[in-house]
Write a structure and sequence with these properties.
single chain; about 230 residues; alpha+beta; L-fuculose-1-phosphate Aldolase; binds ligand L4RZE5RM; binds zinc ion; MethylthioRu-1-P_deHdtase_MtnB; methylthioribulose 1-phosphate dehydratase activity; lyase; EC 4.2.1.109
């Protein structure tokens, strides 16, 4: 990752250099893994809780080569906190809706091949069901392989406010709230964590589990995810 100029002292980004560089390094890592190719994906960290403010990637940037200028500070409504900043991610509201949850410090959106394919293959079932894998224990709060995780799938849309409201309803659902992450059909994955390290771990773990699911289907020749 190449060094780029620090934001000027008058910029709303001033003082956030460490978080910016951590997100830049995250983008480079996700790009290397093939999870954030080209301009796909977006990433955010919470920089203020009350009022809620996020540091988020600007829209349309190559995520493998983010510069220190490729970031925006937004409020809970997804609006830039001051004029003159670049346009924030087109999916900003999908970050703010998750970041509103207490305990969330970072949100990562990726576009891996396996998440994209499985989000379509399992769309009619509503979720990818993942059960019995030791690697499930890499997800916050899971302590045994004897666990079933449902990675829910939302239909893709360009109407991000409407999708954000659907996600909000599922995040706050009292019976079975979304945990760890979700998929958007033929699009990608959202995951989050208490901080950037945990969100990165969740990306790795969920991607591993999705790849296991997909490769198992390919080897066994059928859509029998629970068998
Ligand atoms: C070729 S990626 C299409 C847009 C998208 O899904 C994405 O994740 C990146 O959008 P952004 O506005 O955050 O650059
Ligand atoms: Zn996307």
């Amino acid at each position: 990752m190449t060094a780029t100029a620090a934001p000027p002292a008058t910029s709303p980004l001033a003082g956030h250099e460490a978080k910016i560089d951590a997100l830049r390094e995250t983008g480079h890592w996700l790009w290397q893994r093939g999870f954030s190719l080209g301009t796909s994906s977006n990433y955010s960290v919470v920089v203020s809780r009350d009022p809620l403010e996020l540091l988020i990637t600007a829209s349309g940037k190559d995520k493998g080569r983010l510069t220190r200028a490729d970031f925006v500070i937004v409020d809970r409504d997804g609006k830039a906190t001051s004029p003159g900043q670049p346009k924030s991610s087109a999916e900003t509201l999908l970050h703010t809706v998750v970041a509103e949850l207490p305990g969330v410090g970072a949100v990562l959106h990726t576009h891996s091949v396996w998440a994209t394919v499985l989000s379509d293959l399992f769309f009619k079932q509503g979720a990818v069901e993942i059960a019995g894998y030791e690697m499930l224990k890499g997800l916050d709060g899971i302590t045994t392989h004897e666990h079933t995780s449902q990675i829910e799938i939302f239909e893709n849309t360009q109407d991000i406010p409407q999708l954000a409201e659907q996600v909000r309803e599922r995040l706050t659902n009292s019976i079975r709230p979304l945990k760890h992450g979700y998929l958007i059909r033929k699009h990608g994955m959202y995951t989050w964590g208490k901080d950037l390290d945990e969100a990165r771990r969740h990306v790795e773990i969920i991607e591993f589990l999705l790849e296991c699911t997909a490769r198992r289907l390919m080897l066994t020749g059928g859509l029998h995810p629970a068998s």
